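Wed. Picked up where I left off yesterday with UDP-N-acetylglucosamine 1-carboxyvinyltransferase. The coffee machine is broken again, so keeping this brief.
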Amino acid sequence: MKKIVINGGRPLKGEVIINGAKNSVVALIPAVILADDTVILDGVPNISDVDSLIDIMEAMGASIKRVEDSLEIDPRGIKNMPMPFGKINSLRASYYFYGSLLGRYGEATVGLPGGCDLGPRPIDLHLKAFEAMGAKMTMDGNYMNLSTGGKQLVGASIYMDTVSVGATINTILAAVKAKGRTIIENAAREPEIIDVATLLNNMGAHIRGAGTDIIIIEGVERLHGTRHQVIPDRIEAGTYIALAAAIGEGIQINNVLYEHLESFIAKLEEMGVRMTISEDSVFVEKQTDLRAISIKTSPYPGFATDLQQPITPLLLTARGHGKIIDTIYEKRVNHVAELAKMSGRISTASNQIVYEGPNQLHGASVKATDLRAGAALVIAGLMAEGQTEITNVEFILRGYSNIIKKLRSLGADIQLIEE
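Structure written out below (tokens, as returned):
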């Protein structure tokens, strides 16, 4: 059992470097299954989700070398094997094995995905796409079998009933080796989708329109090896920018793509946050007299649901009243009760978060209920007077690379303790 202990109230300053995007790499690694030769991924974050994916790939027969932030993956030894249990059940992103295994073998037996409990996150859109391309689905307990019956997947026109990053990527993975053309309408537009499409195109796929709401894939017979740089993690970047605005005395966040954070930064500017935006970095000044704002999450390029929780402690420093409406995940309010334990004037009402500020937070024993809630509690603990203990930190380690080391480099008094 691990916990994070923070002695808060210390001003932070310095520089931090953002790692490669978690939400990209958890799809990029399964995508390598489709290659007929070695693929090297650079900028891979040091997070537990990556560790789990490596274990799964090696169990399937892949040869993987890891040197610092690079992964060299040789998928030629991979065998199609059932993966109903084990690490596959701890990952939400395990569903990307459906698309990649279907695309390579025409068959996949994979346990149902896990990850953070954020309310209903059905995979019906994924199944709709697979079935449109000729796969049949059967359930056996807690795992799913998808099969084409020995036939090749066939391209199809697929309309996504709701915008879904996971379903869009999974459809691309299944379609790149399918016979003919696949058209995805109402596709998600997130940068991570562009990243996956870029990798696949560099491997020889024919994908057009990634980053728009219509994606066209022309199936190919073979995908070769390549080398690919993972894009910077916009959620990690936003988390550190929010932290810097909440308690920093001058922090520079490097390896940031501003165009991936426009809606987030626009909200910070509405609050009155002073920062300097450069080509690949953001410098956040020490803040005073911030204004309360209201936020409503929406699919990209709107305000990201994954940044709703990390910005909440910063909102508690602002003057006035505000609210947060998360239109993506109904359960993304579990951090509210934990922040209230730290003397935050914050609550939920009719599936909305309402808050009043400014607040002086106080250290407390709190629990991370999911990945981004954990990030919010880390920021709150750094802001608070006294000591904060955070349990369930495995959620945090799933998505924030070297977080303890990075925060210590800024001057934080923070420890990861294993009991």
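Quick read: The chain has two domains: 2-19+232-418, 22-229.
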